[in-house]
TrEMBL record:
Its cofactor is pyridoxal 5'-phosphate. The gene is ETNPPL. It comes from the Eukaryota. It is found in: Mitochondrion. Belongs to the class-III pyridoxal-phosphate-dependent aminotransferase family. One of its GO terms (cellular component) is mitochondrion. Catalyzes the pyridoxal-phosphate-dependent breakdown of phosphoethanolamine, converting it to ammonia, inorganic phosphate and acetaldehyde. This is Ethanolamine-phosphate phospho-lyase. GO terms for biological process: embryonic hemopoiesis. It comes from Nothobranchius furzeri. Transmembrane segments: none annotated.
Length: 464
């Protein structure tokens, strides 16, 4: 323990408020929190902000704090094949020892990786652009769409999130509720989220896919009335931050037909949900049926297993229209040899360890166990998911769908006390989100579900 209050560090001021008997670890953590406050933008959010965890290492589906305490990671969807997977670490380190450079030099990893990615996709999607984040990927997707179509207007979904760069703020109503830039926002149109639990057209509706597609049609007609045309419709293949929403089958195909007829293209954002997570298919847009192929897909988070790596894949026609406009594309770090070596290793691990199959099997087990909990706990309004992408929507009243926001936050904090990391999202922050690494096991599921059961029992008793 620390026996002296106060003390100084490089800043000369941070220790003034520390107390006698704070353990060395607590002191170190407090110091990190203070340094974060001092040097990092105050709007940069942190998990469990009133009592953040200091993570010092991670392995598989576990993270460890400075005291060696293990946490089960159910949310960190960038550690796709497991944290610090040795094959991925080795591939990155070996390439780093040999060469890293920008993409203006010829190097094999870039083309090898592009070929491997394209092998997971329909033939039509045959041209890659490598970037470093999901936001960059979506920003480029909009540029490609506008250049190819010659149009400017974009349709996005209510509660969507596509990234933080300025071109995406208006198309990400989930995080940025007020349209930010009057100039840009006049070209952005928000269609209702195709949510069949809480949305405009719900379960029980005879054809929610068509009803939601008709909403897009209305927007297209309004744009035409203004004498303009649609450049693109953009949607997350499964809406993630917006509350783990699974669009009804047929919706994307109908929207794609409408949008293409109106001169636009379809962009599927796979940044959170692609890459084997849903188990049954490698990409989440494939849930919409074999006939549906987007014109552009964007990917990020899991593909580098925590290393910054993202990609836009599109058709030859779209890419050629971009080039013929004189638009040279250059990205210093996008597709560098180290990123691509890591990307290749991630794909190898998914195959070698059958992680897509594991996502399907363990995801189904998780959903089944949660469905059983729903029979017991009235607080659970809806379970929805595919593979290891599962949402649990908590409600105070099943008939009225009153969001149980405070209860969802309680669940998150109580689980954290039990060393299980989960988050709550959705427009009412009442949807518990499961997006663990794909090496998650049925034992992990048992542990979380048992704890969740106890916490929900306590909460329901308190509600009376
Ligand atoms: N698209 C989706 C669906 C996302 O969830 C995110 C990030 O959360 C992004 C894009 C932006 O990705 P990044 O944070 O890597 O820029």
């Amino acid at each position: 323990t620390c026996i002296k209050p106060g003390g100084t560090d490089v800043t000369g001021e941070l220790f003034q408020l520390y107390y006698i008997n704070m353990s060395v670890q607590e002191l170190e953590k407090k110091k990190t929190i203070d340094l974060r406050k001092k040097h990092i933008g105050p709007s940069c959010k942190i998990f469990f902000s009133h009592d953040p965890i200091k993570i010092v290492r991670a392995k598989g589906q576990y993270m460890y704090d400075e005291n060696g305490q293990q946490y089960l990671d159910c949310i960190n969807n960038v550690a796709h094949v497991g944290h610090c997977h040795p094959d991925v670490v080795t591939a990155g380190a070996q390439q780093m020892e040999m060469l890293n450079t920008n993409t203006r030099f010829l190097h094999d990893n870039l083309v090898l990786y592009a070929q491997r990615l394209q092998a997971t996709l329909p033939d039509k999607l045959s041209v890659c652009y490598f970037v470093n984040s999901g936001s960059e990927a979506n920003d480029l997707a909009l540029r490609l769409a506008r250049q190819y179509t010659g149009n400017k207007d974009i349709i996005t979904l209510e509660n969507a999130y596509h990234g933080h760069v300025s071109s995406l703020i208006d198309i990400s109503p989930y995080k940025f509720h007020q349209l930010s830039d009057a100039e840009q926002s006049q070209f952005v149109h928000v269609a209702p989220s195709p949510d069949v639990y809480r949305g405009k057209y719900r379960a029980g509706h005879p054809d929610p896919a068509t009803a939601y597609a008709d909403e897009v049609k209305k927007i297209i007609n309004n744009v035409h009335k203004k004498g303009r045309k649609i450049a693109a419709f953009i949607a997350e293949s499964l809406q993630s931050c917006g509350g783990q929403v699974i669009p009804p089958v047929g919706y994307f195909q109908q929207v794609a037909e409408l949008v293409r007829k109106a001169g636009g293209i379809f962009i599927a954002d796979e940044v959170q949900v692609g890459f084997g997570r849903i188990g049954s298919d490698f990409w989440a847009f494939q849930l919409q049926g074999q006939d549906f192929v987007p014109d552009i897909i964007t990917m990020g988070k899991p593909i580098g297993n925590g290393h910054p790596l993202s990609c836009v894949v599109t058709t030859r026609e779209v890419a050629e229209a971009f080039m013929s406009s004189g638009m040279e594309y250059f990205n210093t770090f996008g597709g560098n040899p180290v990123s691509c070596a890591i990307g290749l290793a991630v794909l190898d691990v998914i195959e070698k360890e059958n992680l897509q199959g594991n996502a399907l099997q363990v995801g189904q087990y998780l959903t089944n166990r949660l469905e059983k909990l729903k029979e017991k706990h009235l607080l659970i309004g809806d379970i929805r998911g595919r593979g290891l992408f599962v949402g649990v929507e908590l409600v105070r009243d099943r008939a009225k769908l009153t969001p149980a926001t405070a209860e969802a936050q309680e669940v998150i904090y109580k689980l954290k006390e039990q060393h299980i990391l989960l988050s709550a999202d959705g427009p009412h922050r009442n949807v518990l989100k499961f997006k663990p690494p794909l090496c998650f096991t049925t034992e992990d599921v048992d542990l979380v579900v048992e704890k969740l059961d106890l916490i929900l029992t306590e909460l329901e008793e308190a509600l009376g």
